[in-house]
Design a protein that fits this description.
Blueprint (H helix, E strand, L loop, with lengths): L2 E4 L7 H9 L12 E7 L6 E5 L2 E7 L4 E7 L2 E8 L11 E8 L4 E8 L5 E7 L9 E11 L3 E5 L2 E7 L4 E7 L1 E9 L5 E10 L4 E9 L6 E7 L16 E3 L9 E3 L1 H24 L1
Parallel strand pairs: 2-8, 10-16
Antiparallel strand pairs: 1-9, 2-5, 3-4, 3-6, 6-7, 8-9, 10-13, 11-12, 11-14, 14-15, 16-17, 18-19
Length: about 280
């Protein structure tokens, strides 16, 4: 999906400020053509005060928070960031900067660290295209101060060499995915394993954030629903991936041929049951 870098001056939390400032001011239903914006504060150890249009909107705002989605009128908002003990926005440490929102898009703005640990921000365009019946979407985003990573399921890489701030999008049957994150080419987890619920008709977005060197790597999860199509059967998923529907299943993903064997076994059982029922009649 499309993504673009935001000037570093916004990185520490200016994007998050927009959501907090407007959440109480906007009507519950948005006008057609408004933008949808979610914001994630993923810069560890950085507490700030945030002003939007010169009004204090977030006081002593801490990392790890996800806000939104908010339906926002298209337009430009002035954002300034100050030290957490500032009296007002007259002497901002960062900004003020103008944040322009276009109509019709669905975005997540993430304040995070670069691979080498510098504060930055990335604006992602979320995939809201319609999903086939029975499928969910899993989006994995690398926003951590860490080298390229592999995403593992059942001990095998299902996403390889994912670098900050890139993403990978997978469409697969709805279920629970047990996943872990490891340095590229290795299988020792630096995050996880963790169970991620990939619901039907939902884009489940998983963010790896924090710092490997500082030992505070973590996952954040965002969901975007309402992506259903008309039910017409359950497809097999992309790239040979099938999510397990058993939350406690440690294998997480069934890969390729194993999934076909499970499907064949289930079909055989169903046919035998039908034959027995007919004979009884």
């Amino acid at each position: 999906m499309q993504k673009k870098k935001i000037p570093a001056a916004i990185a520490a939390g200016a994007l998050i400020a927009l959501g907090g400032s407007l959440a109480g001011a906007l009507p519950a239903s948005a006008a057609d053509g408004d933008a949808k914006l979610s914001v994630l504060h993923a810069v560890p150890g950085l507490t700030v005060d945030v002003y939007v249009n010169n009004a204090l909107t977030l006081d002593d705002f801490t990392p790890g928070s996800l806000a939104g989605p908010l339906d926002l009128p298209a337009g430009t908002y002035s954002v300034a960031i100050t030290a957490s003990d500032a009296a007002d926005a007259s002497s901002p440490a960062i900004g003020p900067v103008d944040l322009k929102l276009d109509a019709g898009g669905n975005y997540t703005a993430v304040a995070h660290l670069t691979a080498d640990g510098k504060p930055t921000a990335t604006l992602y365009t979320n995939d809201t295209s319609t999903l086939a019946a029975g499928q969910g979407r899993l989006t994995v985003r690398h926003d951590a101060a860490a080298p390229a990573v592999d995403v593992l399921a059942g001990g095998s890489a299902v996403v390889s060499n994912l670098s900050n701030p890139d993403e990978k999008v997978l469409n697969l049957p709805a279920g629970t995915v047990s996943a872990s994150v490891a340095a590229t080419g290795t299988t020792t987890p630096v995050i996880g394993p963790a169970d991620v619920n990939v619901a039907e008709g939902v884009n489940t977005i998983v963010y790896a954030w924090g710092s490997l060197a500082d030992g505070n790597l973590a996952l954040a999860v965002q969901t975007i629903d309402g992506l259903h199509s008309n039910p017409s059967g359950v497809p097999a998923g992309s790239a040979g991936l099938v999510a397990t529907n058993r939350p406690a299943d440690p294998t997480g993903l069934v890969i390729g041929g194993s999934a076909l064997l499970v499907l064949a076994a289930g079909t055989a059982v169903a046919l035998r049951r039908r034959a027995v029922a007919k004979a009884a009649r």
